[in-house]
Amino acid sequence: ASLEVSADILSRLLDCLEPEIVLAQLRDDLYMGMGHPNEHIRQVCLHQVERLVESDIGRNNLKNDEELLANVVSTVGDESLAVAKIAMKSLKSLSRDPAEIKLIFEGNLRAPLKRVAASNDTIKYRVLEIATSVSIVSPVALEIVNNSELLQMLLSDLHTEDDLVQLNAIEMLCVLVDCPHGISFLEEVGVLRKLEEMLKESEQDPSQDFLLPELIKFFGALARHQPKEVSERYPAFLRCSFKLLEGCEAALVNIAVETLGFIGTSTDGKRTLNKQGKSMTDALSILGRLIQVPPTEVRVRALSALACLFSVQKDEMNEDLEAMLEQWFAQVSSKPFELILSLCRQPFMEIRCPSLSILEALCNHRWAQTVLSNSPGFHEYLLDRSTEHEKIGKEAKYTVVKALAEAYHTADVFGRPYLLKT
Description:
The protein has helices at 2-14, 19-33, 39-54, 56-63, 66-74, 81-93, 98-105, 110-117, 121-135, 139-147, 150-156, 163-173, 180-188, 191-204, 212-225, 227-233, 235-245, 250-263, 267-274, 278-290, 296-310, 319-332, 336-344, 349-362, 366-373, 378-383, 391-406, 410-414, 416-421. The termini are far apart. The protein folds into 3 domains: 1-94, no CATH class; 191-333, Leucine-rich Repeat Variant; 334-422. By secondary structure, it is mainly α.
């Protein structure tokens, strides 16, 4: 305990110095401290490295000290996850431009990085987390990291017979889906086709459904960026998502709900979902049921998904889209507006806030404004500040008022006097 207190005091004292001064005067102490038997001392030393990376002068000085950087790389394999995370964060932050990325993945640090990755599967995935995070910085970054052969380790794990290893690989590959060049890379190396095959196998054989949630998450993340392409090239994905939505297992239903919301965030995604015909209208009815019954976690996710489905940027609105969303909303419930307004008045904050998010989305549509304007008590409810007592609730309701005040048709539908009151 006394050593922990000493480490805390030392950390506070070092933080009072400029990081480049710490490196200049205490470089050898930092180096040795990273190998100290006490993890708190190791954390103190790596925290100073973290400060160096965030300082322009310190960053340049650190890049010229490959021995110290090699020691940082080795601590990625530390037995303490807290220590390893600081090292990982520093290496990610040190990889902003091609020269820095080459230093770590092509230069003298490449060998120690691969050596650490070879320790065991847990540590390997720490290294792969660094590699994938750096890869999405730019196409050049991805090329440099790919040349280091680290990504090949990740890709090869898809072809093992160990379900847990495959699960970790799919989760890590989701990072690369977050940028266009990452998606292109995965397509070029055949990962997307491989994952679709795995998805079909999981769909056809219930004993293989262990990977299904992660596969749906992967294609959901991909569909957020390329909804039309994903639905056309990988039809099994949407088919499985709709099927999961009808299931009884809360965890799988949650994933299906989040996936629909994920895809429906963009206008292209909404149109893609609409092309699914009856599957989508049935899905909207299911969402309408889910927001009314326990468990709370599923209700909250379903409410958030509906908010995404009915949110549209002002510059993307047009008559066809408005008509489509009006038809969608009618599928949610026999009396969808009454349902949402009743949920906005619920005493439970976790239900009320996402319900207000749906109301915020609806306020941007003329068809919704017309119904809301004629809903008994809505005018008074919206202006009544006493309905919310906590900060998060007040902010959620304020966004509804703000959306209504800024919407195109509010003055015509609600009247200018009411608009001035909001």
